[in-house]
Every structure is written in C-alpha cells, then in structure tokens.
Amino acid sequence: LMSRRRRIVGSFSYFLRERLFCHANLLSDSVLSWETVEPQIARFFGDHTFSDLKIPLVVSAIDLKRGKGVLLDEGKLSDSMKASIAFPGLLPPVSMGTMELVSSTIYCELPLDCITKKDKPVLTIDLPNPFSGSNPQSLLEIVSIVDDIRSRAIKEKLLIKTDYLYRLEGMKKFRWGDYHQIPEIVTYARNETDKLLKTVPLP
Length: 203
Hints:
Shape: globular
Strand content: 5-15%
Number of helices: 6
Mean pLDDT: 79
Low-confidence stretches: none
C-alpha cells in the first residue's frame, strides 16, 4: 500500500483533506491561522504595493462572495500574496474590500478563466503534474483522486484560451511536496526552459 507520506507528497488535495477530516475542528474556518505565516509575508513584501513593481504583476484568487475568479493588480502586495496562498480549509479567507478571497490553485493552477480578448496574445507555460491515481484505499484517497481529475479537466478546457502553450514535460518527475528538492527543481526548470526557447518559436 502507498505510504501516508507518499500520498501526501503525491496529492495536495489529499494533504488538505487529511488535515481537515482527521485533525481539524470542522466548525472552524481553517486548520492554521495567519499568525503562522504573516511575519514571513511581512518580511518579504513589507508595505510595497503593485505600483512599486518594475514588472507588472497580476495575482489570481477566488472571491467566495461572488463565486468566481478574480485578478488582483492593485493595493498592498502582502494582502494579495495572502489571498494567493489561502488554500481553502488550511488558511482563513482574506477580506479585501467587499471580497472574501481564497487561493485559486485548488480550482485550477492556471488562472485563464479571467483572461479576455484585451489580454491577448496569451503565452502560457504549463508545469504538468503527474497523475496521483491508483487503487484508492480510503475515502480520502477517492475524493482526492476525483479532485485531481476535475482540476485537470478544468485546466485543459481553459488552455483553449491560450495563444501559445509551452509545457515543461520534464517537471512531471517532481511532486508538490518535494520541498527538500527545491534547488534541484529550480535548476531543472531553468534547463527545461532553455531547451524550450531553443527549439520552439516564440511569438
């Protein structure tokens, strides 16, 4: 049987659901509080705003009140970064104006649903994830596999909106929980990108 550690590393959905179903008070809004990560966010971003950036940046999130994805491009960077990592159930939603924001990653890692004609041409770099499906041994594994299938289907549908799609296929060897391999992941991604730029025509 697949070990607990391998299931967690193989599926972010499994990790969240295990924490929520097995270790959390389901009446609370999250497993962790912002006190856990806010000091690090403040250290990285301080009081900087989007207007301080030399390269334009847009951050994707989901507004729970409106039930749709949004793109954030103004205000304090720290607030938008919090919204981008507010994984549902793991960290509390982030209030910004009239919005209650959570990370869009669980829904789909490519926020192309907010793209309009005025944003074209759209160039997308996709980091494919290995499919974590196997013979499920528990309720959590079954639900997590369904989550993965749904997310993949949504992503493929949204990729129709992109004008230029480049996939770093070699990144499939890494999984979301391989934090101890971050230096290797960064180096590998750079090498994959260099090869891509030499063989695929860019717009």
